[in-house]
C-alpha cells in the first residue's frame, strides 16, 4: 500500500470503537543518511491533533488501516503532548518544499509516499516538480534524489500550505506554532494576506510578533489591515511604540482609523476589548436585509448574534444608537418588517470605560453573547463579545497551553 503523506493532512483518526478522536497533522520519520544517501527514512508514526488542539503521537505500529478519509488504530492512544526529538523529522512540516537534486538538476518536493514493508513503514517515493511555464512533475524513488540532509536558507512553503488549504485557520496556526522559527516565517511569507491575517489571530502573541517583525513593514501593514481592528490593536499594543507607529502610518487611512480609536482606550476596558465592526443597520432596513447581513461567513457567531440599529452613519462611530435586534427575534418576524419595530428595549448599552469585571458581570447577568458599546454622545462605537472577554480573562499564554 502506498500512501502520499501530504494527502493525509486533516484525515480523521478513529479508535477501535469507531469513535473519531482527532485528525492527522503530520508523519514522523527518521532520516538515515548513508554514504550514497539511498536508505529510505523509517516512519515512526503520526502526529494526531485531538481536542483541545493538543498534538499527540500515534505509533505506526498501532495503525491498523489507512483508508480514504479514515485512519484506524488499535490499542490506547497516549495523550501526552508530542515533542519532536532531534533525530526525528516532520514530513509535512519540514520535508515538503525542499529543493533536491535529481539527474543533476534542482527540483522541489511537493509530496512523499510511504509504504509498508515486511517489518516497517518507510518513505519510498518522492514527488517533485520544476518551476517554469510548463510545470514538469515526476514521482521517483527516494534513492534517486539528493539534498534532504542539507540545511536550506529559503525552503519555500507551497506544499505545506497546500496540505492545510481546506483546514481552518486555527489548525494551520497550531501547525505553525510547532515548527522552528525559520520554517514558521517561510510559511507565513507565502500565505496570502487575508489567510495570514486569519492565522495570526489564532497564534500566541510571541508567535504573532515574531512573524510580523520578520515581514517587510509594508507587507506587515497590509496584513494588519486584513485583521479585525480589535485584534490588530491588541497586537500593536505589544510592539515597541516606534514600530507600532510606523505600521499604523503605512496602513490605509480608512483601515488605520478604527485601530487608532481602539488604541485610545485602556486594554482591559470595554473600549479596549470591543470590535469596531459589528453588524449595524438603519431602522428603515428590513428583517430580510438584517438576516442577509448576519449570514456572512466571515462573521463570528458572537458578532452575528445581533444587529445594532442606529441613525446614519452606520459605520462606527455611528449616528444615534437606537437599540439592538437579536437574531432569534429576527427569525420569528416577517421578512418585510422594519428593524425599528424589532428592537429589544430592555438592554441598556455599556460605556467604553466599563472594566473587565463590569463587562463580564453585564454579559452574565443578561445572558448575552455580545453587548453594544455607546459613548457619551449616544453613538455606537463598537460591541464587546464573549470571545473578547474570554481572551482577556484567560492567561496570556492560553493559546500555547491549549496547544500543549
From TrEMBL:
Signal peptide boundaries:
none
Report the GO terms under cellular component: membrane
SMART domains in the cross-refs: MgtE_N (SM00924)
Q: Which SUPFAM superfamilies match?
A: CBS-domain pair, MgtE N-terminal domain-like, PRC-barrel domain
**CDD domains named among the record's database cross-references:** CBS_pair_Mg_transporter
**Domain named CBS: residues:** 343-404
Q: Which InterPro entries match?
A: CBS_dom, CBS_dom_sf, Mg_transptr_MgtE_intracell_dom, MgtE_N_sf, MgtE_transporter, PRC_barrel-like_sf, SH3_actinomycetes
UniProt keyword list = CBS domain, Cell projection, Cilium, Flagellum
A single Gene Ontology MF term assigned here is: magnesium ion transmembrane transporter activity
Q: Could you identify this protein by its name?
A: Flagellar motility protein MotE (MotC chaperone)/sporulation protein YlmC with PRC-barrel domain
Classification of source organism: Bacteria, Bacillati, Actinomycetota, Actinomycetes, Streptosporangiales
Amino acid at each position: 500500500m502506498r500512501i502520499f503523506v501530504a494527502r493525509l493532512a486533516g484525515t480523521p483518526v478513529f479508535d477501535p470503537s469507531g469513535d473519531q478522536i482527532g485528525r492527522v497533522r503530520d508523519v514522523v520519520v527518521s532520516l538515515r543518511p548513508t554514504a550514497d544517501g539511498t536508505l529510505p527514512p523509517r516512519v515512526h508514526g503520526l502526529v494526531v491533533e485531538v481536542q483541545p488542539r493538543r498534538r499527540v503521537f500515534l505509533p505506526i505500529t498501532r495503525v491498523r488501516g489507512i483508508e480514504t478519509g479514515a485512519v484506524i488504530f488499535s490499542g490506547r492512544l497516549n495523550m501526552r503532548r508530542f515533542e519532536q526529538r532531534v533525530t526525528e523529522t516532520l514530513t509535512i512540516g519540514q520535508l515538503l518544499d525542499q529543493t533536491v537534486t535529481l539527474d543533476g538538476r534542482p527540483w522541489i518536493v511537493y509530496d512523499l509516499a510511504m509504504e509498508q514493508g515486511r517489518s516497517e513503514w518507510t518513505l519510498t517515493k518522492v514527488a517533485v516538480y520544476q518551476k517554469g511555464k510548463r510545470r514538469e512533475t515526476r514521482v521517483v524513488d527516494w534513492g534517486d534524489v539528493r539534498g534532504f540532509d542539507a540545511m536550506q536558507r529559503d525552503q519555500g512553503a507551497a506544499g505545506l500550505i497546500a496540505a492545510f488549504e481546506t483546514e481552518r485557520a486555527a489548525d494551520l496556526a497550531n501547525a505553525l506554532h510547532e515548527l522552528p522559527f525559520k520554517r514558521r516565517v517561510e510559511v507565513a511569507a507565502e500565505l496570502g494576506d487575508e489567510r495570514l491575517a486569519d492565522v495570526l489571530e489564532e497564534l500566541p502573541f510571541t508567535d504573532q510578533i515574531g512573524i510580523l517583525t520578520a515581514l517587510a513593514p509594508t507587507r506587515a501593514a497590509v496584513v494588519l489591515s486584513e485583521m479585525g481592528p480589535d485584534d490588530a490593536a491588541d497586537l500593536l499594543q505589544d510592539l515597541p511604540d516606534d514600530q507600532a507607529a510606523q505600521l499604523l502610518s503605512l496602513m490605509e487611512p480608512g483601515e488605520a482609523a478604527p485601530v487608532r480609536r481602539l488604541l485610545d482606550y485602556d486594554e482591559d476596558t470595554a473600549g479596549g476589548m470591543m470590535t469596531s465592526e459589528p453588524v449595524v443597520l438603519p431602522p428603515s432596513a428590513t428583517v430580510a436585509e438584517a438576516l442577509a447581513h448576519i449570514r456572512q461567513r466571515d462573521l463570528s457567531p458572537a458578532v452575528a448574534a445581533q444587529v445594532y440599529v442606529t441613525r446614519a452613519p452606520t459605520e462606527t462611530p455611528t449616528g444615534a444608537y437606537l437599540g439592538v435586534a437579536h437574531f432569534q427575534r429576527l427569525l420569528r418576524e416577517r421578512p418585510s418588517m422594519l428593524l425599528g419595530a424589532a428592537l429589544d428595549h430592555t438592554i441598556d448599552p455599556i460605556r467604553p470605560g466599563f472594566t473587565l469585571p463590569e463587562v463580564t458581570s453585564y454579559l452574565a447577568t443578561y445572558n448575552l453573547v455580545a453587548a453594544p458599546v455607546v459613548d457619551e454622545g449616544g453613538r455606537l462605537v463598537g460591541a464587546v463579545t464573549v470571545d473578547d472577554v474570554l481572551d482577556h480573562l484567560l492567561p496570556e499564554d492560553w493559546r500555547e497551553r491549549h496547544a500543549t
